[in-house]
Design goal:
- By secondary structure, the protein is α/β, with parallel strands linked by helices.
- It has a domain of 158 residues: 3-Layer(aba) Sandwich (Rossmann fold).
- The chain is 43% helix and 18% strand.
- The chain has a five-stranded parallel beta sheet with strand order 2-7-1-8-9, with helices on both faces. Strands 4-3-6-5 form a four-stranded mixed beta sheet.
- A hairpin with a 3-residue loop joins strand 5 and strand 6.
Length: 233
């Protein structure tokens, strides 16, 4: 894979969404290693930390009262209540910080939050990351649960059901990536970022193949495996 790049920043806002367990965090970390000037927005959440998660690294962990105070104060670019229990949100200050430093910003947010941001910032570049099949997603969810020392069948089923629901919003996203092989997915996301920054040639061709509207065979196969109609894109 290509090495780290140093180029002028355009202040682009990238919206990244994926079903829980899709390997999104690992993929985003790899792309940030490859491409200079990508700032990652750390979301706020009211859920409890998992495993080795640290405050200010994976999330800013807070309580319901403080989160609701921030909502009332207009401090969120977007926020949502996920799985009917915990809040997640992106602070407006994250976008301002990235622009001040001349960086592009990656927003790691769920579909609810993404749709909010698309309306507020229509020029944002939206990317949906999905696993190749529900079987792979279930395996990843189980592996994560086992690593955390908690395996809850009801939670796993809820995540799988939620994934199908989220995939039905795929047409709202400009790009779609299948996160099957990390190297390939990272190379494709890198190409999208560089193309949005103005690069042409090979990266433009790669990015074009990742357009949701391109109806790639891999994307159609993944949607079919989740029993989601390919007609949505």
């Amino acid at each position: 894979m290509a090495g780290r790049l140093v180029i002028d920043m355009a202040g682009i806002l990238f919206i990244i969404s994926a079903p829980s367990g899709s390997g999104k965090s690992t993929l985003v970390s790899e792309v940030r290693r490859l491409v200079e000037g990508l700032e990652f927005s750390i979301s706020y959440t009211t859920r409890q930390p998992r495993g080795s998660e640290e405050n200010g690294k994976e999330y800013w962990f807070t309580n319901h009262a403080e989160f609701e105070r921030m909502i009332d104060a207009g401090e969120f670019l977007e926020w949502a209540k996920v799985f009917g229990s915990n809040y997640y949100g992106t602070a407006v200050s994250a976008l301002e910080h990235a622009r001040t430093h001349g960086h592009d910003l990656l927003l790691d947010i769920d579909v609810q939050g993404a749709l909010q941001v698309m309306k507020k910032v229509p020029e944002a570049v939206s990317i949906f990351i999905l696993p190749p099949s529900p079987q792979v997603l279930e395996m990843r969810l189980r592996n994560r649960s086992q690593a955390e020392g908690v395996t809850d069948e009801a939670v796993i089923e809820e995540r799988l059901s939620q994934a199908r629901n989220e995939l039905r919003h795929l047409s709202d996203y400009k790009y779609a990536l299948i996160n099957d092989q990390l190297d390939q997915a990272a190379s494709e996301m890198r190409a999208i970022v560089l193309h949005q920054r103005g690069e042409e040639g090979e990266v433009a061709e790669t990015a074009a193949r990742c357009l949701t509207s391109a109806h790639s065979a891999r994307l159609d196969a993944a949607l079919t495996s989740f029993q989601v109609s390919t007609a949505i894109v």
